[in-house]
From TrEMBL:
Keywords: Membrane, Transmembrane, Transmembrane helix. This is Uncharacterized protein. Residues 147-173 are annotated as: Disordered. The keyword Iron-sulfur does not apply. It comes from the Eukaryota.
């Protein structure tokens, strides 16, 4: 609000477009870099410092382009870590319970064993390798701890109870939590600086709202990234950070489980409607480059795991995150724009980025019923009709929705920077913090 002399109430010194851009970019990159907790890199990557840095940078760039898929990854690993913890509790007679119930357990041999949520995440991220008697090594996978099944139809998969997991038929590894923490490269000081910097940014936004000072579109976009990174921190809170090498130990009676087989019924339409394109992109992100092994696990383990809804939950969580990400951009719906056309472009793109993931959620839910219909129908001709009548239109629809979604995302990023070219006085004004101090 302007005062009588034309000065903005609650405004201090002015700020430049370059200063706003650098501040927002610093927050986005810092939040993204510290929020991403990568898996253990493959052997051919961790033996080269250059490949390690490139691999880490690629994952950070993916997080900037598709942060919602990173949330999908975090949700998936958080759910798997919970199942690992429950399997350990069952194997050691602790009883049903989540990660909070894990504690020291003394077996009949008098040795106390401790398994924490950090251990569960470390196993899920490929951090434990079994060293066999013949000298060969094998990664202990999630499916080795929580045995998987391979039903032949979606109907059979849905008939599996949620508590169908059986204790693993081997002696659980004994690893000190301190040994895992020693491998983790999480810098408490660096994370504290990022948290302080982000908190100050959020306080600034609230102060600008309180003083009715304009918030730039780039700051709105930065807010969206900060919120998504906060979600990643929440789901990956106990996951070791930036570990490069696994721990090799000898596990008694270890029997690796084969990868789950894909259902014989196929489910082509369900693959489209359940977000198969998301899994493909997701696999290339969490993998080591080729992502072939990860893709195989995603296409099989996520769909055929004992928790039959894990794939759909992870996919829907990704779409809901994308909707929230677009919804934050809608905050600027009635903000001041330089031209009407730029306002229209921003509003249309924000609306599409918010709405398109909702359409995908509906498609995921419909995919279940379509898959059920195909499996229950014995008529091959009718199955072929469903394939042609629904499969082709859905493929075209998904293609255009994906193109429209990412095009709108790019436009929003470009416009957020372009709109800095001519800042209105209320946007260029910085917050006068002394105005919040009560005075007579």
């Amino acid at each position: 609000m302007d005062s009588a002399d034309g000065h903005l109430d609650g405004a201090g010194d002015t700020r430049s477009a370059l200063g706003i851009a650098w501040s927002c970019l610093a927050i986005i990159f810092a939040c993204t870099w510290t929020a991403i907790h990568p898996n253990i890199p493959s052997e051919h990557i961790r033996h080269s410092e250059w490949k390690l840095r490139r691999w880490r940078l690629i994952q950070a760039l993916w997080a900037l382009m598709v942060p919602e898929l990173m949330v999908m990854w975090a949700v998936q690993q958080w759910a798997e870590a919970q199942r690992v913890s429950e399997a350990y509790n069952t194997a050691n007679g602790i009883g049903r319970g989540g990660m909070a119930a894990l504690n020291d357990v003394e077996k009949n041999d008098g040795i106390a064993r401790t398994w924490t949520s950090v251990h569960s995440f470390f196993l899920v991220m490929g951090g434990i390798i079994n060293r066999a008697e013949d000298g060969t090594t094998q990664i202990v996978h999630y499916r080795d701890v929580v045995p998987q099944t391979s039903p032949q139809s979606s109907e059979d998969r849905q008939s599996l109870p949620d508590d169908a997991a059986q204790p693993p038929p081997f002696e659980w590894p004994t690893i000190e939590k301190e040994e895992i923490d020693d491998k983790s490269k999480g810098d408490a000081l660096a994370k504290a600086i990022v948290v302080i910097q982000t908190s100050y940014f959020l306080i600034q936004l609230l102060a600008r709202v309180a003083r009715r000072l304009t918030i730039t579109k780039l700051e709105i976009m930065t807010l969206a990234y900060a919120l998504l990174c906060g979600m990643l921190y929440a789901f990956w809170w106990h996951k070791p950070y930036n570990v490069h090498r696994p721990i090799s130990i000898r596990i008694q009676n270890f029997k690796p489980q084969p990868p789950p087989r894909k259902a014989a019924s196929g489910g082509y339409l369900a693959r489209i409607m359940n977000g198969g394109f998301v899994l493909n992109l997701h696999g290339s992100i969490v993998g080591d480059g080729e992502g072939l092994e990860v893709l195989e696990e995603l296409n099989g383990e996520l769909e055929l795991s004992m928790n039959v809804n894990l794939h759909r939950v992870a996919t829907i969580s990704s779409f809901m995150t994308a909707t929230a990400f677009g919804g934050v951009h809608c905050i600027a719906w009635n903000f001041e724009f330089i031209t009407r056309s730029e306002r229209l472009i921003w509003n249309i793109c924000s609306a599409l980025v918010t709405a398109i993931p909702l359409v995908w959620i509906v498609m995921v839910l419909l995919g279940y019923f379509v898959d059920q219909l195909r499996n229950k129908c014995p008529n091959a001709l009718f199955k072929r009709f469903i394939h042609v009548a629904l499969g082709i239109p859905l493929f075209v629809l998904v293609f255009f929705l994906v193109c429209a979604y990412f095009l709108c995302r790019v436009i929003l990023v470009v416009e957020a920077f372009v709109l800095l070219r001519d800042l209105p006085p209320s946007a260029a004004a910085s917050v006068d913090w002394t105005s919040f101090i009560p005075h007579v």
